[in-house]
Design a protein that fits this description.
Radius of gyration: 33 Å
Strand content: 15-25%
CATH topology of the largest domain: Beta-Lactamase
Distance between the termini: 61 Å
CATH architecture of the largest domain: 2-Layer Sandwich
Structural class: alpha+beta
CATH superfamily of the largest domain: GAF domain
CATH class of the largest domain: Alpha Beta
Number of strands: 17
Number of domains: 4
């Protein structure tokens, strides 16, 4: 991948021709090498041109332009540039013979353009840096015009002729562009690129990635492709990643410079987007605080919710998230994680990081009710565990509220559920509506009667588990969690149904408990919860 590799038509287009130049035909042949560039009248039968040349054809263009383009293709001319438009028949002929046909803007000076292109052939290095700088300037203009990352990815892709991926810090695709010859590979490429393990460890660590100099060249196990990867760095941290992808023999030095400069431009765009997002979060936070303080009338709350992009209709539930350990990441990082999960739930969630917690309002789907909040909480738990495996998270869920003003009570309940989850060392989201028994047991936590009751019912099993390492208390807990369904219990414990039957019989023999008796079943379930509470306190 040195400068001795011939310049291609694509590089000529990217490095020497005006940004307004359009490809009318022959896009699949833009990788042809260019040995020389020449300008010539379109009516002299290409007498000045030889095979390997790129031709700047001077107007006026004859009516039989289709025949002229066919002759140029047959003589080995690798590409043709014209000023303005040609007839549809001429464009169709160029496409038929696979001849790259470029349309230059009307104001262009072809003689000056010819000299620029020749200078590029003789000194590719200077042209590479100059065009990369021009690309950066064009990208910053798009950012200033609020065109967004999608428009920036398109410009990068069209300039380099390479597939372009812009990813966030979690490797999610923010924007992409694919040339026609790679469009069929988009799904496979993005499936591979969004897997964190497919980047070196130094790039997965966002702080180390930001300190890395240069571009990473990496093989892509999809149709023998290769990519250049550059971190998108802002404030000493990799905020995302930019990739240019293509066949290994078609990646050029310009692509490296383009990837580096484009990543810098994307960093500006992402920093701007983050500043806007932070401002919106502050405004939303004011609304969340107002709801929790009950300082809004129902009508004011509904109007304010709509202004902040939250649907006030239907039922809602509050969720509270907090780190379970004393040492933990910031609440702002937790808020960012939650935003990443809820970004596709527009109008359905509101998130705010507070001094010592993150509060989330979730609009509940009518048919799913509280399960909407449960699934959301579980998604957050799994993502937090993946990103921060050494920092456990506790989540509490309040009961549904019929209107926005009821979220204050749901929030209060979610905090109680969170407190219970932390006390029980339960990594799973805890729903207040299922904690009525625990709320009663907490009132008896420090009484000798609760411990005596637990020992009376479960004492023999506790002693047997400790001495034999059998785990029968866990078996009983699973059995009642699945309402006595043996098949479901066995599946949850990853054991055969016959093994479960054996365990249940041994539990009866050791404990002397008659689990067919309703009163005994109730006592055992209460004792299991009491034992869990007392064990968590000891730990």
């Amino acid at each position: 991948m040195t400068d001795t590799i011939p310049i291609t038509v694509q590089e000529l287009l990217s490095l020497a021709l005006p940004g307004e130049t359009r490809v009318l035909a022959g896009r699949a042949s833009l990788d042809r090498p260019v040995t020389w560039v020449s300008s010539a009248p379109s009516d002299d039968d290409a007498a000045r041109l030889t095979a390997g040349d790129f031709a700047f054809l001077l107007p006026p263009y004859p009516e039989e332009m289709s025949q002229c383009l066919c002759k140029l293709a047959q003589s080995g001319i690798v590409g043709v540039a014209v000023i303005g438009e040609l007839t549809p028949a001429a464009v169709a002929e160029a496409e038929r013979v696979s001849e790259p046909l470029l349309a230059l803007p009307p104001s262009v000076n072809i003689r000056r353009l010819e000299r620029t292109a020749l200078a590029l052939l003789l000194d590719r290095g200077a042209g590479t840096e100059q065009r990369a700088a021009q690309l950066y300037q064009q990208l910053t203009v798009l950012s200033a015009e609020n065109a967004g990352l999608a428009a920036m990815a398109t410009l990068i892709g069209e300039t380099t002729g390479k597939a372009t991926l812009i990813q966030d810090k979690r490797f999610g695709i923010l924007a992409s562009w694919y040339p026609p010859d790679l469009a069929s590979l988009q799904e496979a490429v993005e499936s591979w690129a969004t897997t964190p393990a497919n980047l070196p460890e130094a790039f997965q660590d966002r702080r180390r990635a930001a300190q890395r100099e240069g571009i990473l060249e990496q093989a892509v196990p999809v149709d023998s492709l290769t990519r250049f990867v550059s971190p998108i760095v802002a404030k000493g941290m990799a905020r995302g990643y930019l990739s240019l992808i293509g066949p290994q023999d078609k990646l050029r030095p310009f692509d490296k410079s383009a990837a580096e400069r484009s990543a810098a431009a994307c960093a500006l765009e992402m920093a701007k987007a983050k500043a806007v997002s932070d401002a919106e979060k502050r405004v939303r936070g004011t609304f969340v605080d107002a709801v929790l303080a009950a300082s809004l009338t129902p009508l004011e709350a509904a109007r304010s919710a709509k202004r902040h992009g939250y649907n006030p209709d239907g039922r809602h539930a509050a969720l509270v998230l907090d780190w379970a350990g004393k040492e933990h990441p910031t609440y702002r990082r937790l808020e960012t994680l939650v935003h990443g999960i809820t970004k596709g739930l527009e109008h359905e969630t509101l998130v705010q990081a507070r001094e010592n917690e993150v509060v989330l309002f979730s609009r509940l789907e009518p048919r799913q009710g509280i399960e909407t909040a449960r699934r959301l909480a579980d998604s957050i738990r799994r993502q937090a565990n993946a990103e921060f495996p050494n920092d456990p998270l506790a989540i509490g869920i309040g009961r549904p509220a019929d209107a926005l003003f009821g979220l204050r009570d749901s929030y209060r309940e979610s905090r109680q559920a969170l407190s219970m989850a932390r006390r029980l060392s339960d990594p799973n989201p805890m729903y207040f509506g299922e904690l009525n028994v625990y709320r009663l047991l907490f009132q008896l936590e420090y009484t000798p009667e609760l411990n005596a009751f637990c020992q009376e019912i479960l004492g023999k099993l506790i002693e047997y588990d400790h001495s034999q390492g059998t785990g029968w208390l866990e078996t009983l807990t699973a059995y009642f969690a699945h309402k006595g369904n043996l098949s479901q219990t066995a599946e949850a414990l990853f054991i055969h149904r016959n093994t479960l039957l054996y365990r249940m019989e041994r539990i009866r023999q050791v404990s002397g408990l008659d689990l067919d008796n309703p009163e005994t079943r109730l006592s055992v379930q209460l004792a299991l919860r009491a034992y869990r509470l007392l064990s968590a306190r000891e730990e």
